[in-house]
Amino acid sequence: MKYFWIQLVLIVGSVSMALVFIRTWSQAKNRAWKRIAFSLFVVVNVYAVLRPTDVTWLAHQLGVGRGTDLVLYVMVLAMGFLTLNTFLRFRSLEKKITDLARTVAINEGMRHNDERLGAEPAAGSGAGADAAANADADSVKA
């Protein structure tokens, strides 16, 4: 009974994280394995809070001195995964922004060139349209 309050706080925290994740489920563009891993992580957290002696037993079976050390090691791995995932997502977004900026620059350059020459830009033709089509195709793939 002396662990009841901390268990309650930790379980409410884990369930809150799960609810936030579920509420943004349709907005998240995560792969299925990330969703499964996160759900499993929440379930394991709740179990570890309710049965800390089992975590200690598992730690001893794995050659770790204490259950808290095992939890710390798992958290370090999870943080590394989160950091790598965030880095890769930002790198992907930066590439998309660069491609978009190039497409806009090409389209603007073509429009200004056509205006300078006094010609009406032909809809759907020229390098700008090709770049825009490539950008559209890339956005559909993503």
TrEMBL record:
The chain crosses the membrane at residues 6-25, 32-50, 70-88. Residues 117-142 are annotated as: Disordered. It comes from the Bacteria. The keyword Glycosyltransferase does not apply. Keywords: Membrane, Transmembrane, Transmembrane helix. It holds the Pfam family DUF2304. The keyword Transmembrane helix applies. Residues 119-142 have a biased composition (Low complexity). This is DUF2304 domain-containing protein. It comes from Streptomyces amritsarensis.
